[in-house]
């Protein structure tokens, strides 16, 4: 009877695995296509040269981080409402992926700044808020790994994940509310003091749009799905260990 | 037009390194957990 019942479950798991692998292949191809549009298809900026092409991934990585960390907020709220561990797993996946994309955004921005601003780093409001955002989520991972009790850890992580999103919002809007920032706005009008801004030609706009979709939809969803898989395996290992100890 | 190609390559290398670090950490954790499951299932089933 058990075997009969478990068959549809196993078939469903196999289907999900095939779907995940298919999504992974599609994502890898999409990233390569996105790089083609960024590095070959889009025209070269006459003032900045080829380094401007970093912006196609720099901006898109932030969009991806926004989505992944937004998933953490959604999952955190869902966990606090239902106390179902699967939401905590999704929230954790969102933070790990969002943090990696946030680091890509920060590092590529610094590399772009070196030839354009003549410095690797400056305590500009946008750069400072982006750095605080990355450090806040790095702290999330460190703090949650230090809490032994599973319920306390999940509750703490849910509340932290929701509150930490304020750093993402601040990073997003700071170039609109702080006139002293020198960071250019790629979409919309740049602040008055912005240095290194550029107008998007039709080919640049296409490259930006394609990369935005790839890095904010395909990349975070695929990576979060794999991360959830790992956490599910960890839960299974924990259950097997407990059973082995009981025996 | 200024020649900033070297910075573009540096940026691409940084993106590749960060993504590969994330993916490698996931692959290592996945393999390690699968190994743990195999070992624990063997312990659970003495046959």
Overview of the structural elements:
The complex is a heterodimer of chains A (247) and B (47). Chain A is 79% helix and 0% strand. Chain A contains six helices and no strands. The mean pLDDT of chain A is 91. Chain B is mainly α. Chain B has one helix at residues 5-44. The longest helix of chain B is centred in the middle third of the chain and has 40 residues, at 5-44. The mean pLDDT of chain B is 92. Chains A and B meet through helix 2, helix 3 and helix 6 of A and helix 1 of B.
Cα distance, first to last residue of chain B? 73 Å
Q: What gyration radius of chain B follows from the Cα positions, in whole Å?
A: 21 Å
The percentage helix of chain B is over 70%
Count of domains of chain A? 1
Q: Helix tally of chain B?
A: 1
Mean pLDDT of chain B: 92
Major beta sheet summary of chain B: none
Order of helices and strands of chain A: HHHHHH
Low-pLDDT runs of 5+ residues of chain B are none
Structural class per helix/strand content of chain B?
mainly alpha
Radius of gyration of chain A (Å) = 21 Å
Brief descriptors of the model:
heterodimer; A: 247 residues; mainly alpha; 6 helices; globular; B: 47 residues; 1 helix; rod-shaped
Secondary structure blueprint with pairings:
The complex is a heterodimer of chains A (247) and B (47).
Chain A: H1 2-41, H2 55-82, H3 85-117, H4 125-145, H5 150-177, H6 202-246
Helix pairs in contact in A: 1-6, 2-3, 2-5, 2-6, 3-4, 3-5, 3-6, 4-5
Chain B: H1 5-44
Question: Can you describe this structure in just a few lines?
Answer:
Helix content of chain A is 79%, strand content 0%.
């Amino acid at each position: 009877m058990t075997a009969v019942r478990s068959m549809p479950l196993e078939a469903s798991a196999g289907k999900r695995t095939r779907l995940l692998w298919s999504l992974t292949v599609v994502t890898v191809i999409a990233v390569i296509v996105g790089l083609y549009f960024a590095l070959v298809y889009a025209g070269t900026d006459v003032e900045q040269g080829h380094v401007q092409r970093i912006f196609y991934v720099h901006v898109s990585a932030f969009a991806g981080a926004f989505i992944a960390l937004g998933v953490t907020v959604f999952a955190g709220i869902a966990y606090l409402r239902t106390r179902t561990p699967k939401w905590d797993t999704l929230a954790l996946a969102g933070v790990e992926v969002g943090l990696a994309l946030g680091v890509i955004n920060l590092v590529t921005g610094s590399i772009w700044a070196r030839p354009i601003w003549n410095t690797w780093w400056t305590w500009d409001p946008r750069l400072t808020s982006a750095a605080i955002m990355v450090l806040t989520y790095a702290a999330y991972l460190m703090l949650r790994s230090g809490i032994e009790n599973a319920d306390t850890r999940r509750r703490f992580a849910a509340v932290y994940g929701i509150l930490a999103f304020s750093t993402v919002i601040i990073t997003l809007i700071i170039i609109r509310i702080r006139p002293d920032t020198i960071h250019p706005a790629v979409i919309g009008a740049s602040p008055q003091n912005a240095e290194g801004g550029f107008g998007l030609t039709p080919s640049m706009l296409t490259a930006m749009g394609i990369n935005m979709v790839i890095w904010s939809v395909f990349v975070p969803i695929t990576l979060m799905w794999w991360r959830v898989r790992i956490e599910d395996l960890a839960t299974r290992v924990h259950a097997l260990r407990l059973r082995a100890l009981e025996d | 037009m200024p020649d900033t190609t070297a910075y573009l390559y540096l940026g691409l290398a940084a993106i590749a390194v960060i993504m590969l670090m994330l993916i490698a950490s996931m692959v290592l954790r996945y393999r390690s957990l699968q190994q743990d499951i195999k070992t624990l299932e063997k312990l659970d089933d003495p046959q």
